[in-house]
Amino acid sequence: MNPSETMETARTPEELPGVVTRLFRGVLYAESDEKVWQSLLALESQVRDYVAVLGLDLILDESEGYAFLRSREDPEGNLPRLIPRRRLTFDVSLLLALLRGRMLEFDTNSSELRLIMTEQEIVDMVAVFLPDSSNQAKILDKLGVTIKKVVELGFLRRLRDQAATYEVARILKAYVDAQWLEEFDARLADYRASLEEPSGAPPETSQSTTEGELP
After folding, report:
1. Distances in Å between the alpha carbon of 192 and those of 35, 76, 162, 185, 201?
2. What is the spatial distance between Cα 23 and Cα 40, in angstroms, rounded to a whole number?
3. Cα separations (Å) of 95 from 120, 169, 198?
């Protein structure tokens, strides 16, 4: 056994449980938890083997600097779900779709790494898809609640030094993926159609929600 293998074997019992426990708590970001991130990179194969026993996959994007756990597909329902699915409301689904579209444009046209948006820019982006109403204050309050929920989910981060300004978290790419984007236009058409209904509200069926595994 060479020295590097000996070192790896020695460090695994100490660091592996801590890395896996941290991943169970939510998304791990390289920039905010550098020590655990470096341990994860060193123990990646061991972590994958460990969580696989529990029916989980490690999703790791080293270039973007994030990692998280995702439940494996289990059509027969033989495994307990350790990573819960969360239902997204119509409004949250719409905002995530628009943010992902904006990130795609940003990555195509800009050399910058961080997509920064003000709250007003987010409002303007969503306003196109909102129903006409004389009670704009109510609509803005509802949109504020939606933005807050997206922040809680980890897809928007408030900037401490700038009021009402957010960074769009790049982990959004892992959840709203290429296949989802292929259906982007159809989803927006559904949203528009629902807003044109007499009630002016999304349909009360599964079309008004998008189920997904969120951090």
Report:
1. 46, 36, 33, 11, 10
2. 10
3. 14, 13, 23
Whether 65 contacts 33, CB under 8 Å: no
Phi, psi of 87 (to 5 degrees): -80, 135
Per-residue pLDDT of the chain (215 residues; tens, 9 = 90+): 454 454 444 445 588 999 999 999 888 999 889 999 999 999 999 999 999 988 899 999 998 899 999 888 766 666 666 666 677 787 888 899 899 989 989 999 988 889 999 999 999 998 887 766 656 777 788 889 999 999 988 899 999 888 899 999 999 988 877 666 666 667 677 666 766 665 555 444 333 344 344 44
Looking at 115-156, list the stretches that DSSP marks H as alpha helix, in order from N- to C-terminal side: 119-127, 136-153
**pTM of full prediction above 0.90:** no
* Sheet containing 156-158: order of strands: 115-118, 165-168, 156-158
